[in-house]
Amino acid sequence: MFISIPSDIEAALLDLPLPEWDLDGPFLAKATVERYRTELRTAPKFEETVTTLRHALTGEGGGYAVLRLGNLAKALGAGDNRFLRLATGFAAEVAIPFSPFPKWPLWKDIGVKTDKDPGKSSGIGYNAFHMDLVNATLPPDYTTLLCVRPDPLGSGTSILSDAHAAVARLPEDTRALLAEASYHYGTFFDLHGVGDECKPFPILDGSAPGEGFVRFTAKMLKRSALGQQHADAAQALAAELVRGQVSFMLDAGDYLIVNQRRFLHGREALHSGQDAVPVAERRLLLQLLLRAPGYAGPA
Ligand SMILES: O=C(O)CCC(=O)C(=O)O
Ligand SMILES: [Fe+2]
Fold first, then answer.
1. For ligand 1, is residue 283 a contact (CB within 6 Å)?
2. Cα distance between residue 239 and residue 235, in whole Å
3. Which residue from 100, 143, 209, 212 has the fewest beta carbons nearer than 10 Å?
């Protein structure tokens, strides 16, 4: 679901005096949310755009959207703070922006590191289907990725898959295994606003079909010691996610927003030769996580 911004809104957005944001603990401060909202609403058709965006994320069959902010990125500079304030303003219309990572004030860099585990965030390999903060008791309701710079070598296709649709295609006995608290992944250290470590966890939490998180990362298949039956069930889910995937390339200024209660995300492997690309020219995304009000307050 791609959402473009009419050019008259773009022109109005460029002129808005959005101040620097303030934080309240890990969360974007309420005063900032209100100030940004007041400013953004002065742009013509802003509210229609937000309604379309919310519908794409939470309406029937929905779960992700790409807001095309490329013209604004071009005018302001994709990494410029004024552009980030606009993106933050759009995000705050969906849910409350926050940073669970003390190191990152709000937006987190996801660059390209050739010396990292290739399958993990900012690695160069296949980034398998996952939800962000899978091992937290309160994962972010939304994860968002703002593309500052696509890969100059032309790779880095984003992949998305409807998690509940994938689960629904699995046999009953596989789903029963996925509902057992027999899965674990990763470490959990110094994180804020996402509850406690969830270990071990069930992938399916007993919610009605189509509801709740599908608490899954295909990265666990290679990196967590799982019993054979549970590993096979997780592998079957990973295969269904791939079977149902959509893929597209993010361009500079594209803002991908994913409802983590509906869709899982990942990224195809980057082209070889990243070592030869100067760090300042490599693919760069900025990640921002969102908490839907009503599910949980500050932890
Ligand atoms: O690089 C990408 O496109 C996705 C990155 C991602 O999903 C992550 O770092 O959690
Ligand atoms: Fe991710």
1. no
2. 6
3. 209
Q: Which pLDDT tens digit goes with each residue over 209-232?
A: 888 999 999 999 998 899 999 999
Cα separation, 239 vs 216, whole angstroms = 13
Which residue's CA is the nearest one to ligand 1's atom 5? 121
| 191-202 average pLDDT score | 96
Return the domain boundaries, the chain: 2-291
Ligand 1 pocket, mutate which of 107, 112, 121 (most atoms under 8 A from CB): 121
**Closest-lying ligand to the alpha carbon of 147?**
1
| 2-291 to CATH, choices 2.60.120.1440, 3.40.630.30, 3.30.1330.60, 3.60.130.10 | 3.60.130.10
- CA 67/CA 4 separation, integer angstroms: 6
The pTM (predicted TM-score) of the whole model is 0.97
pLDDT digits (tens, 9 = 90+) for 131-179: 999 999 999 999 999 999 999 999 999 999 999 999 999 999 999 999 9
Mutate which of 120, 145, 274 for ligand 1? The one with the most ligand atoms within 8 Å of its CB, which is: 145
Q: Is the CB of 267 under 6 A from ligand 1?
A: yes
